[in-house]
Design a protein that fits this description.
The protein folds into three domains: about 5-50, Uridine Diphospho-n-acetylenolpyruvylglucosamine Reductase, domain 2 (2-Layer Sandwich), CATH 3.30.43; about 60-170, Uridine Diphospho-n-acetylenolpyruvylglucosamine Reductase, domain 3 (2-Layer Sandwich); about 180-285, Enolase-like, domain 1, CATH 3.30.390. The protein has twelve helices and 14 strands. The chain has helices at about 10-15, 35-40, 80, 85-90, 90-100, 105, 110-120, 125-130, 150, 225-235, 240-255, 265-285, and strands at about 5, 25-30, 50, 60-65, 70-75, 135-140, 145-150, 155, 160, 165-170, 180-185, 195-205, 210-215, 225. A five-stranded antiparallel β-sheet has the order 4-5-10-6-7. It has a four-stranded antiparallel β-sheet with strand order 11-12-13-14. Helix 11 crosses helix 12 (about 265-285). The longest helix is centred in the last third of the chain and has 21 residues, at about 265-285. The chain is globular, with a radius of gyration of 19 Å.
Length: about 280
């Protein structure tokens, strides 16, 4: 690795002041799990890293407000979220997903803000939080702005954040009777990078689907909503015929890309099968 400066500010505002919107070689670091791998591989050669581990403790808090919205500080670790009683009670799909992310050593240091800001299309959190209707607060020199997680990623390692903005908070709306599930399909261990991720958020009236949001990850360069597949199931009872039809529609409407985890044809087949499984799992919760 090439030499670089390392700074450890004690406040969020101090950290933001050290970033430069015109200099891509100055990078913030949360847990550092992804950025260090990129540096070791020679993909990233920063001149300055801004370590965020010492900023105010409030950026690691997990709370629920009077409206039932989950507030997660940007520096909260994935392990803290995995074990949070608030998350387990109100958003059980989130708690289950955290247990399948990488391994416990990584979850102990990786942060939710860094995870989302990294914008790797293979990560699990962007499709999961998109399906739950979550948003982030991006904080910069001009103040805060709210961005839907579904709108955050724009491509491989690309997002709408300015270089001098940091994700200071993640907000997840209450489920309010909804049911959700996430299916992660890997080619090796369960905690490996997914070949395909499918997050679904449903509302049911008896056995009839009244509302549905389907988000796919790891098959495209950003989390992608499956509009046609959801439309075909709305107003219908969940059954094998309808789910098979929706799975085929999902595979047809998605422009899938091949990568080291599977070919486009393989991922389309996975999508046609696992969409129905994700819907059935959510509806059974």
């Amino acid at each position: 690795m090439t030499p670089f400066e390392y700074h450890t500010p004690h406040t969020l505002s101090e950290a933001i002041s050290m970033l430069d919107p015109e200099d891509p070689d100055i990078r913030p670091v949360g847990g550092g799990t992804a950025i260090m791998l990129m540096m070791k591989a020679g993909v990233l050669r920063p001149t300055r890293l801004i370590g965020l581990r010492r900023i105010e403790a409030r950026h690691r808090e997990i709370t629920v407000d009077s409206q039932g919205i989950l507030h997660i500080g940007g520096m909260t670790t994935l392990a803290a979220l995995e074990n949070s009683p608030l998350v387990k009670q109100g958003w059980p799909m989130l708690a289950r997903t955290f247990r399948s992310l990488s391994n416990i050593r990584v979850r102990n240091v990786a942060t939710i803000g860094g995870n989302l800001a990294h914008s790797d299309p293979h990560m699990d959190m962007p499709p999961v939080l998109s399906a739950l209707g979550a948003s982030v607060i991006a904080t910069g020199p001009q103040g805060d702005r709210e961005i839907a997680v579904a709108d955050l990623c724009t491509g491989y390692y690309e997002n709408v954040l300015a270089r001098n903005e940091l994700i200071s908070k993640v907000m997840v709306p209450p489920m309010r009777g909804g049911c959700a599930a996430y299916f992660k399909v890997t080619t090796r261990a369960a905690h490996d990078w997914p070949a395909l991720g499918i997050a679904v958020n449903l509302r049911m009236n008896g056995d009839v689907l009244t509302d549905a949001l389907f988000i796919v990850g790891a098959a495209t360069d950003r989390p992608t909503r499956l509009v046609e597949a959801a439309r075909q199931l709305l107003g219908q009872p969940i059954n094998d015929i309808g789910l098979k039809r929706a799975g085929l529609a999902a595979a047809s409407e998605l422009d899938v890309v091949s990568d080291q985890h599977g070919t486009a044809a393989y991922k389309k087949h996975l999508l046609s099968v696992y969409l129905g499984r994700a819907v059935r799992t959510a509806a059974a919760v």
